[in-house]
Structure formats: structure tokens, C-alpha cells
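Suppose you are handed a protein chain with no further information: no name, no annotation, nothing but its sequence. What can you learn? This example shows the usual starting point.
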Amino acid sequence: MKIIIIGAGEVGFHIAQRLSEENQDVVIIEKDPIKIREVQNVIDVQAILGSGTNPSALIEAGIKQSDMLVAATDSDESNLIACLYAQYLTDYITKIARVKNSDYMKHSEIFNQDFLNIDLIINPQSEMVSSMLRLIEVPEASEVIDFAEGKIKLIGITIKDNSPLVGRKLSSFTDFEHVFLVGVIVRGEKVIIPGGCDTIQPNDLIYCVIHKENIANIFRLMNVREEGLGRIIIIGGGETGLALATSLDATTINTKIIEKDGQRCLELAEKLKRVVVLNGDGTDREFLLEENIADVDIMVVITGDDENNVLISLLGKALGAKKTVTRIGNLSYIPLISAIGIDTVVSPRLSAIRAILQFIRKGKVICVAPLKGEGAEAIELEALETSDIVNIPLSRIKFPKEAIIGAIVRGKEVIIPRGHNMIKPHDHLIIFALKGAIQKIQKLFTVKLEYF
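A reasonable first move is to predict its three-dimensional structure. Written in C-alpha cells, the prediction is:
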């Protein structure tokens, strides 16, 4: 597949890097010569200095011979114009555009086949709000990802020192082998696809695949408190803060939103009914104490300033907030966050990368979710009846050591697999794989299953 990526910012760069590692034919168009040099030094792709809104640059990149265009600059207008020119220059190309301004999303008719004919619009704000709402649904988790239309949950949980799981081998979980499966262990900077002999240690971040109905069981096993959400505080009343508050406005959760701009507070108050709007500064310790931050179940910090978000989250944790959810725009910060005591990170750029990768790996791939930044992936895909891996026990399949099948979804049935289980045609599989194994998975499934 030949893919043209417009923009070598963090989103474009990371997508190009990932696709290059999978031996896709990638061309990047970028107007900043410094970014072009960075791409050429780090990634094995063709890099063209120019603008994606210039038809000549698109032609030089080979637009007429390309299968897909990904417009991922920081300018919505540039992304839309690039797609418009691509539509003019060739009839046979899939177009993806990153669109940050929510006002465009209110007029979705401009993206349809009669005008721009864009195949996928990625709005990082809506993707990020969806991630935060999933976290609120399962407040004990540090990350929650839906598979199989929500029937399967991938839950990230940090193991505390007093957890009954500490020191236990995964093979010892025989009483729960049909309830959940540990697909990934993150230990410091190391990402592990575990086997039965692996042992859980304090401070491990484990990713478990579990049926939605069994979530309570896994938290009981870990002696994790199961309390209803009482209070949520949102720090930052921008567009993302408003979108999250609007979703919570329809619930019975006691929610407050704090914004330091007085005029913006008035605008928020007009649009929200139940959510309380407060004019204040999230970095003000006394203000947070007055708002009884120690009684807050979840503190969501989503101002537009990464450094401020980190500072406010650390302050909130120090004052007793039970959990923090922190917006981080700069992807290079993410590996450092857990080391300094912040619970959960949401990133508009990472949300955009997830959505774009999922669409690029179309066909029988249903969902793709990078884990631990990008160290591993969870992939949902459909098994085809033409494959040699169907109707034989999993123990006989030569699967990469760096990957594991976490769940099989067969109609309404969810199977946490063991060696004797078999894959049937049209089953949905949840697969965990380290970054280095993605190409092996691709090669394994390309020949028989045509997943990618």
C-alpha cells in the first residue's frame, strides 16, 4: 500500500514511523525543512519539502499512484484543502483528515461524497472525551479500551504493594481462567507479553481482557475498592472540558468544572444545567482545599498547557484526590508521567494516531489500540474460514512468542482462551502483540486471512 502523509508533526511522524516499520510505502510532505531533516534521519520513508495544499507537491509525491492520503497537519483548513486537491487529482484514493475544530463536526455534510468525499474524519477532542468517559465508567482502572462493541473491556490496572496478586504466577489463576486474561505487563519501561510462569510484581501495570459483566470480579480478586462515583472535578473549561462536562451533565454524578477565565465561566454556565461552574485557578492550593479536593473521586485536568496539567495533577494527588486523569499533548512526556505519580494520561495526538491506524489496517481488522504509548498493541480482528488456523487447538498454532490471543468472541459468547480452544470462522479475536511482533502478525495473517 502506498500512503501519502501530509504533515510531519507528532501525529504524522508517529504514523509514518509505524507504517514504515511494517514495510508500507510511505511518502511525507512537510513544509518545515527542520522536520524534513528529522524524518530523513529517523525514518526510512520518502520526505518531500513542500505544502500538502500545493497540487504540484501532491503530484511529486505520486498522488495518482497512491492508495491513501492522511492529512495530519495542525491546520484543519490545510487538511481539508489537501483532501480537496486529492479528490480532483485522482478518483481512486482513500482520504483521512484530522479536524480539531468541533464547529466543522456540526456540518458533517461537507465531508460526504457529494463534496469533499473524505472517508474518515478524525476529531481528537471527541476521541479523547470518549476515552475519559470510559475511564469514568471504570474508575479503578488506569486505562479502558472497548472491543467487540463494548462486550469486551481491555483494562489497565496498576498493582499495589498490598495486592493479593503480588508474587503469584499467572498459571496459578485457575479459579479465574475463564474470567480474565493478563495480555500485557508493563514493568517500568519494559513491556512483556506474559506466559504462565511470569510473576506479577508491585507497581506492574497489567492489561487484562475481560467480559464487561465480570469487571466486578476482577476488582474483588485484587481487593480494590468498589465504590460508586461521588464527585468529579474538571480543571479547564475549554472545548474538551465543555464536551466532557456536557456528557456528565446528563448523569447524577456530582460534577464541577473550574475555569480561571471569568467570561468563559459565564459561557459554560449558560450551556450546563447540573454541572457547577467555578471561576478559579487549578494551581491555587487554597482554592482546591476550599473545594474539598480530598473528597474527589476523579480529578480531570485538561487545560491547554501540558506543564500546568502535570503541576495541577500532582497538587491534586498531594491534597488527597483519589485519581487524576491528565491531558498531555506532547507524546514525549507520556513515558515519564507514571514515574512521577500521575495516574492516567489522555492525549489528543495519541487518540488521533489510534483512530488513523485502525482505519489504515482496514479489511478484517476491527480495532487497533496502542498500549503504553506505542510499546505494544491490542488488535481486534475477524477470522476467515479460508485460514489454516481455524478449527485446530490454539496450542498447535505457531504464534509469535511476542504475541498472545487474549479473547475469542463468538456471537454473544466471550471465550477467555486456553490451549485446547479452537478458532471458528468469523470469530473475533483480541490479540496482544509487542511492537516488534506486529510485522510477524501481519505476515502470519496476510497470506491466509487478508487482514491487513
